[in-house]
Amino acid sequence: MPDTAVHVGSGKVRELYALDDRLLLVASDRISTFDVVLPTEIPDKGRVLTGLSAFWFDRTRELCPNHLLAVRADGRSLECRRLEMLPIECVVRGYLAGSAWKDYQRTGAVCGHALPPGLVESAPLPQPIFTPATKAVEGHDENITRERAAELVGRELLDEAEQRSLALYRSATEHAAARGIVIADTKLEFGLDEDGRLVLADEAFTPDSSRFWPAAEYRAGGSPPSFDKQFVRDYCERLGWDKSPPGPELPDDVVAGTRARYVEAFERLTGIDFDAYVADPRVVLA
Ligand code: PZK
Fold first, then answer.
1. How far apart, in whole angstroms, are the C-alpha atoms of residue 55 and residue 282?
2. Is 129:92 a contact under the CB 8 Å cutoff?
3. Could you tell me the CA-to-CA distances from 280 to 75, 110, 146, 175 in Å, in that order?
4. What is the distance in A from the centroid of ligand 1 to the CA of 16?
């Protein structure tokens, strides 16, 4: 008998359900750009993100325990352990992009990390940095200092979250680089289990939680194309949409091109045929 799933939360493109003592994380095919969810879906996007997340959870278990219990047959739902979530986002950055580039231009530093002068937009950092952020209920997450993050979660937990985050990022970026994908930065979320142990949760190293760039097109200076959303962004720019809701419907060729990019990211990173994943999602688990 399937358990009754009670809806307990919505993200922009995902839904969260409670199943007895477990949770079900369901990824839809919705896509957002410039912070707006578009009216047109990208077929299989939720499956690609779910499969990638499960792949990374499976392959990084020795670096950090995680919340994954099972991948459902629909390929878009993960059964997870229910945790007590930390109130911070654990962001790791290997490149100077997004809010980090803005902060660096203003102050020469990012979340208390002093950086060398003269870095250009999208430049590789001397080493990956941990830049925690608060979880905004609405709007944008705000970068915070290590000191503020320590006030929120405690020094000891913060130190462990930082070390785990950096180890996970190094491992994922090394794997991705060998397959032609730069993971410029990523957002990780952790929780505590019933024994007080730090556990990786949410989604991991997906294009929605990370900035993926095609390695072949990467160059420092300027902002490289997004691996997955570039067709959507280019189309929106061509339209002259002002980026306030509602977003535009996407034409079929933009949908097809974007779907192909998601599938390509999945196949490059996992080495698994996407059709094989759809036939049996457990193929992502070693
Ligand atoms: C949890 N979110 C964010 C994600 C949403 C909301 N393992 C866990 N235990 C307890 N809580 C969470 C998790 C996880 N993951 C995650 N909120 C709570 C979120 C997706 C859709 F609506």
1. 9
2. yes
3. 8, 43, 42, 23
4. 6
Q: What is the pLDDT of residues 187-237, one digit of tens each?
A: 999 999 999 999 999 999 999 999 999 999 999 999 999 999 999 999 999
Where b means 16+ CB within 10 Å and e means fewer, 51-60 reads bbbbbbbebb
CA atoms within 13 A on the CB side of 75: 21
pLDDT at 1: 62
Cβ of 14 below 6 Å from ligand 1: yes
Q: What is the pTM of this model?
A: 0.97
Atom of ligand 1 nearest to the CA of 202: 15
Determine the distance separating the centroid of ligand 1 and the alpha carbon of 110, expressed in angstroms: 27
Ligand 1: does its nearest atom lie under 6 Å from the Cβ of 9? yes
Ligand 1 neighbour 82 (Cβ under 6 A): yes
101-148: per-residue pLDDT in tens? 999 999 999 999 999 999 999 999 999 999 999 998 776 789 999 999
Q: Taking a C-beta distance cutoff of 8 angstroms, is the pair 23, 80 a contact?
A: yes
- 69: pLDDT strictly greater than 70: yes
> How far lies 180's CA from each of 53, 115, 215, in Å?
18, 27, 5
Q: In the predicted model, is pLDDT for residue 48 greater than 80? A: yes
For 188, how many CA atoms within 13 A lie in the half-sphere containing its CB? Answer: 31
Give percent of the chain with pLDDT exceeding 90. Answer: 97
Residue 202 Cα to ligand 1 middle (Å): 6
Residue 65 Cβ contacting ligand 1 at under 6 Å: no
Distance from the alpha carbon of residue 23 to the mean position of ligand 1, in angstroms: 8
